Amino acid sequence: MSDVIVDRPTVSDSAPLPPAGLHRPRLPRWAPAVVAALAVAAGVGIGLGAGLSSRAQWGLIAAILFVAVMYAAAARVEGLRQAKDRLATSLVWVCFLLAVVPLVSLLWETIARGIKVLDGAFLSHSMAGVLTIQPGGGVYHAIIGTLEQVGIATAIAAPIGLLTAIYLVEYGRGRLAKVVTFFVDVMTGIPSIVAGLFILSLWIIMLDFSYSGFAGSMALAILMMPVVVRSTEEMLKLVPNELREASLALGVPKWRTILKVVLPTAIGGITTGLMLAIARIAGESAPIVLLVFGSQVINNDPFEGAQSSLPYYIYEQWANGNDASYDRAWAAALVLIAFVMILNLVARAIARWKAPKTGR
Amino acid sequence: MAKRIDVGGLNAYYGGHKAIEDISMTVEPRSVTAFIGPSGCGKSTFLRTLNRMHEVTPGGRVEGKVLLDDEDLYGHGVDPVSVRRTIGMVFQRPNPFPTMSIYDNVAAGLRLNGRVRKSELDTIVEKSLKGANLWKEVKDRLNKPGAGLSGGQQQRLCIARAIAVEPQVLLMDEPCSALDPISTLAIEDLMGDLKERFTIVIVTHNMQQAARVSDRTAFFNLAGVGQPGKLVEIDETARIFSNPSVQATEDYISGRFG
Ligand SMILES: Nc1ncnc2c1ncn2[C@@H]1O[C@H](COP(=O)(O)OP(=O)(O)OP(=O)(O)O)[C@@H](O)[C@H]1O
Ligand SMILES: [Mg+2]
């Protein structure tokens, strides 16, 4: 021990160590913001000066300038290690913006165009008796269709998916579990049009049923099931084994342990996964075109006759190709986005409400 | 209430790996039996075979006999669920149910087994928390989450949860290894009280603790890495610590080991 202490001064004398103390020169806190603003200004300036027409090019120039200037400034003032840190941080920010720009512009576009005809009448009327080139009409029949089809699909897929995931995580051993996992993987990759064709040939051509919302629901359920299985599986795997053992050691049967300890612990994540799966199938149009046929009028019975649905309605109105129908398509798109957004918010609320509590 | 355990020729496996070999011993009722031995010698594994928790681990397999007052726990037609109700367990790391309040944690064993009578439950929860020496600290916040307690309090909560279902034997796997001396002392005192009613088995790495709380001590050892663990000897604690019959035990206890 004493050797080390005696040695120490000589060691630090010879080594090129930075001056004592914990402070290093730092760029001021506002530096990134200022550099970003300057980079954007420079990007716009260069873009205008060089006559570049695409805004994407302006943005790219600004991004490159920002990353480069931040790196150079940090390398000069703060040293190389900090500069690398800055480089990584700026790249993350640039990528974040790259991801956010399309999202925001999409939302912006949809809201700006969709809000025009979106009102109470639009939400509460169907297209019955409205010529495609006329303004007016509404989306009510499509909302009903989407709610019923998605509702039935969820009623089919959620229990099967949940139980499959529980089987895989809590009971699955050996061959059968591997086979089930394999098929779930395969199902995850099924394109929606293929699911639609499968139900079409089975339900409508072979079994001779007619078009209906229910036929569409079955195809949607096929698409939804693997997503539910996957997300639920991941959530169940996150539940610590100690909790299962604690419950089993109290003499609680396994099925009750799963029901009362494992599922409540994971319920927040499971609901979130479920909502995301619902959101995903709510936007599917291919199976609807094949199996529900589409309709202009209100049909409340999902088991009998053609229905419409929001994605189908958007497709149909867009295909009509005139100003009135374009407006309706955008408004319906806005309704669909709002529907998905509400589902997401509900999922978040449930996840927060049900999350394991740690506070005092 | 308290029952005696007779183990005969017990082997336990993890898949193809034999973790403990040919263990035979008797655990006396209304007493504390301590298991000591080096890490990896199979103390936890053996403890878990005593209430059929070993088979919960994938690949876990047991051979041999464990008699609880003459009834073989591994006999034909024995329900592991009722075995675990009779023989409770406290784990090394406190593991309260995170979705449940303090009250619900203690009541969990009874509730999850479907026996719910509210007034009776209140009495049992209070009695168990008092039994676990935790009542004073939590009586004003029974409805707060159990995960919000300190580590030592959580461990005592887990003990309360285990004794609430009135088991006849209580197995404790290093219950104090994560606790401060004061909580440790509280739990050791608790064991002194509990042994009036239960048969207690405790795994510990703390020799002083084994000497303080236990009536009998079992020393486990393993011949080498990858070899199964074996019971070296079991005797009165006083004898094990003063005059053990095997040299290895003395070496281990006095720290002249390996
Ligand atoms: N889940 C498991 N799967 C496979 N092998 C295991 C498992 N748990 C324990 N083992 C093995 O069984 C042997 C005994 O382990 P055990 O946990 O019973 O030891 P221990 O005496 O409790 O040790 P410690 O004092 O460190 O807790 C070890 O060789 C260990 O590697
Ligand atoms: Mg152990």
CATH superfamily of the largest domain in chain A: MetI-like
Q: Give the integer mean of the pLDDT values of chain B.
A: 88
Overall number of domains of chain A: 2
How would you sum up the global shape of chain A? flat
InterPro entries (chain B): AAA+_ATPase, ABC_transporter-like_ATP-bd, ABC_transporter-like_CS, P-loop_NTPase, PstB-like
Domain ABC transporter (chain B): 5-247
Keywords (chain B): ATP-binding, Nucleotide-binding, Translocase, Transport
GO molecular function (chain B): ATP binding
Describe the structure.
The complex is a heterodimer of chains A (360) and B (258). Chain A is mostly helical and 360 residues long. Chain A folds into two domains: 26-114, no CATH class; 140-353, MetI-like fold, CATH 1.10.3720.10. In chain A, 75% of the residues lie in helices and 0% in strands. Chain A has helices spanning 2-14, 31-50, 55-77, 80-114, 120-124, 140-171, 174-188, 192-206, 213-238, 241-249, 254-282, 286-291, 310-320, 323-354. The model of chain A is unreliable at 1-15 (pLDDT under 50). With 258 residues, chain B is α/β, with parallel strands linked by helices. Helix content of chain B is 35%, strand content 26%. Chain B has a six-stranded mixed sheet with strand order 6-7-8-3-9-10, sandwiched between helices. A four-stranded antiparallel sheet of chain B has the order 2-1-4-5, covered by helices on one side. In chain B, a hairpin with a 2-residue loop joins strand 4 (60-68) and strand 5 (71-72). In chain B, helix 3 crosses helix 4 (118-131) and helix 4 crosses helix 6 (151-164). Chain B is globular and about 55 Å long. The N and C termini of chain B lie far apart (41 Å). The mean pLDDT of chain B is 88. The interface between A and B is medium-sized, with 26 and 35 residues. The site of magnesium ion has 3 residues of chain B, from helix 1.
